[in-house]
Amino acid sequence: MTQHEKEPKDDDAIGPIRRGKFSIQNRYFDFHGPVFWTSSIIALAFISISLVFGTQVDTFFSSIQDGVSTYTGWFFIIAVNLFLLFCIYLAFGRFGGIRIGGESATPEFSKFAWFTMLFSAGMGIGLLFFGVGEPITHFINNPFSEQQDAEAAQIAMQLTFLHYGFHTWAIYAVVGLSIAFFAFNKKLPLSIRSIFYPLLGSKIHGWRGDAIDVLAVISTIFGLATTLGYGVQQISAGLNHLFDLPDTILSQVILIGIITMAATLSVILGLDKGVRVLSIFNIRLAAVLLIIVVLAGPTLFIFDSFVQNTGNYAQNFLQLSFWTESYRMEGAWQNSWTVLYWAWWISWSPFVGMFIARISKGRTIKEFILGALLVPTLLSFFWISAFGGTALFQELQLNTVVSEAVQENMATALFVMVEAFPASFFINLLAISLVVGFFVTSSDSGSLVVDSLTSGGKLDAPVGQRIFWAQMEGLVAAVLLLGGGLAALQTASILAGFPFAIIVLIMCYSLYKGLKEEHESIQRKDEGQQREAYAELVRNVLKRRSESQATKGKPDVTAADESANESAVETDEKEVVGTNG
Amino acid sequence: MINQSNRLLVCLDLSNMDTILIRYSAFIAELLDMDDVHYLHVIKDFDVPKELVEEFPELDQPLDAILRDELTETITHELEQLGSPINPTIHVDYGHALETILETSVELKADITLVGKKTTYKGTGLILSAIASFMENSVLFVPEQTRTSIDQIMVPIDFTEASLTALKAAAQFAAKSKAQITAQHVFELPAQFFPLTTPTEELADKARKVLRAKADKLISQSELKDQTIEYVFSLSEGRKLSEIVRHEALQQMADMIILGSKGKNPTSALFRGTVVEKLVQSDFSVPLFIIKDKKRMKGLLNFFQKAET
Which of B66, B73, B121 sits opposite A530 (nearest CB)? Predict the structure, then answer.
C-alpha cells in the first residue's frame, strides 16, 4: 500500500509545479501564487521601507552590511572554496562522464558558440565597472603593501583575479549544473526547487519548495539591482564626463527609468528579436572595445602582464583563496571586497546558472565544468589585464589621473583612462553604449529568469509578467540608490547572498545524491542489457529443444540421452536430484 | 605442479563461446593428462523471466533439466568429433554466477578453471577481474579467437617465487607441446645513473646483462635447470606494465601468457593484482593462465571470512 501511495506522488513531480493558492492564469499573467506574491511583497516592503525612512536607511544599511560581512565572512570564504572543490570532484570523479540531457543528448551549439555564450553570461557590467576601477583601487590601497609600486600593482592584479577567477565560476557551475541536471536529465520543472528533489521528494511542491524559490527570486532581484545600480552609476558618470550632464542620485534614477523602458521594449519584442540581437551586439561591441584598448594601450605590456598575472594567481591561489584577514588587527578591507563579491556572485547565481544550464544540454559533466571554469576565467583575466593593466601602466609611469578619479568616483575610472587614447570621445561613447547594452540585456534576461521561477518553471510565461518584473527590478535598483546609494545595493547583495549560500551548499549535496542515483541507473542499464542477452540465449535453447521435440513427435529426452555417453547421463540425474532436493 | 587433483572445471554460458571452450578444454586435458573434466553452467535465475519458460508449455521439464540436456548434447557432440576420451560431468546450478563458480571450483578442488573471455558487454570485464582476484585455484581465460595449439608461451617474471611457479607451469605445458618458453622481465633504469653520461641504450644493455645473470641464477637453483628458456628484458620507459606485456605477447605471437599470482602476504595478493586485472580486461586474443599458490590463497580467504564474522 505504501508503495502504491508513493508512486503517484513521484509522478507528480514530473511536469510543471502545481499551482498553489492565489495563482493566476490569464492572457497577461500566469503565475504560481505563493512564490509570486511572497517575493513581490518582500521586494515591495524593501522598497517602501527605503522610501519612508529615506537617508536614515543609509546608516542602517551600512551597519547591517558591516555586521553581516564581519560575522559571516569566514563562511562565505569556506563556502566558495567548497564549491570549487566540489566542481573539481565532479569533473574528474566517477560522474564526469554523465551527459546533461541523457546519454543520447547532443550539444545544441558548437564548442565555439558555447564558449562565447559562457563568457557573455558572466561578462557584463561587473567587468566594465570594476575592470579599471578595481585594480587601481587595490593599487592605491591594499592590505599587503603600503607603497604604490610594482609590487602593489602585482598584488592589485592578483586580488582582482581572485574576485573574477575560478571561485566565481565554480559558484555558477554548481548552480548551473544542478539546474541543468534536474531539468534535462530528471525532467523536473526549470526552477531552483527542483534541485532539492533528491532530499525533499514531492515535498518540493509544498511550502519548502516555495520558500526556496522565493529566496532565489529575492536573491536574483537584489543581485540584479546591485548590478543595475553599478551600471547606471557608470552611465551617469560617463555622460557627466562627456557631456557635463549632472551626475546625481536623481539623474541616476531618471536614467534607470529610461533604460528600464528600453528593457521593457526588448521584453515586448521577445527573446528572438530582443535579448538575442542585443546580446550579439553587446559581445561584438565588447570585442571591439577590447581590441581598441589592447591596440591603443601598452600592447606588449598587456600581453606580458597577462602571462605574469595568471602565473601569480596560480602561484598564490591557495593562500589567496583561504585568506580571511585574521592577523590584520585593524581595518576590514575584505568585507567591502572579497566577502561582498562572493555574496554578490552567489546572489546572482540563479540568474547566470539558469542561463548556462540552458545552453549546455548535451555536454558531459566534465566538459561542462571545465568549460565553465576555464574559458570565462581566462577571458576575464585577459580583459582585466587589458583594462586594469593599461591603467596600472599609466600609474607606474607616474600619470596618476586614473587613481585620482577612482578615489573621487570609481564609476569614472574607465572614461578617465581612455582619455589617454586618441579619439577618446568616441571610445567613451562606445563604452557607455556597451554599459547600456549590458544593462538592458541583464534586466531583460533577469526578468526571464525571475519570470520562470515565479510561474512554476515555465519558459513561455506571458509577456505582461515579464514587463512587471523588468519594472520591478528597475524600481528596486532606483529605490536602493535613493535610499542609500552604493551601500544599500551592497547590503542587499549580502543579505540575499547569505541565505542563498546555505541553499547552494545543500544544493551540492542534493546534486551529489541525484548524480549518484543517475550513475547507478546507468550501471543497472548495462546490467539489464546483459540480463536480456542471457534471457535471449535461454529462449533460443528452449525454442531449439521445443522444435526438435516436435519433429520427434513426442517429448522423449531419454532417447537422446541414451545415444550420448551413459555415465554422463547418470551424473546428470544425480545433479538434478541434488539441485531439486 | 599444476595437476594435483587432475580435475578441470569449464564454465559455460550457452553462447557460441561454449564450443570454443569445450574444444579448448579437450586440448588442455590432453596436454596435461587430465581425465576428470567438469562443465558448469549457472542459471542466473533473476535473469530468466517466468514468462519465458511459459512460452514453451510443451517442454514439461524444469529449466535446469532442459539446459542440462542441451549442454550434454553439445558437449558430447563436440568431444566425439574431436575423438576425445574425456568423460564429462555436467553441472547446472541456479545462483549468482561469480559465487557459484568460485564455490564449485573449491568443492571440486579443480586444478584449473577455464573461463571464456568476451568483450561484448561492458560489465563482463568486472566479473572476469573478480574471478581472477578471488579464485582460490588457478584460472585460464580463453578468448574468442584461440588456436588449439601451443608453440610459444610467454611468462612475465619479476624474480619472485610466483615467477618461478609460473615458469614451472610453463614447463609443464611445454613438455608435451614442445612449446618455446620466453620469460619477459620489465625493468627501469635506476635513478642513480642520473645525470646520464652514457646513452640510454648502453645503460639498458648493461642492465640486461645483470638481469640475465640474475635470471640464470634463479633458474639454475630450481628444478628448471634443464629447461630451455628465452629471455626478453624490456625497458619500461614509463609505459604501463600491462601494455608492455601485451605488446610483447603479440610480437612473439604467443599462444599463452602465464602469470604467477603475486604477493608475499595475504593482502598484497589481492591488491597487487592490477596487471592481471588489466590483462584480463583488455581485448586481445591470447589465453591468459593465472597460476595461484593454493595454500596462500586459502589463508587469505579464511582471513576475510573471519573478518566478516
Answer: B121
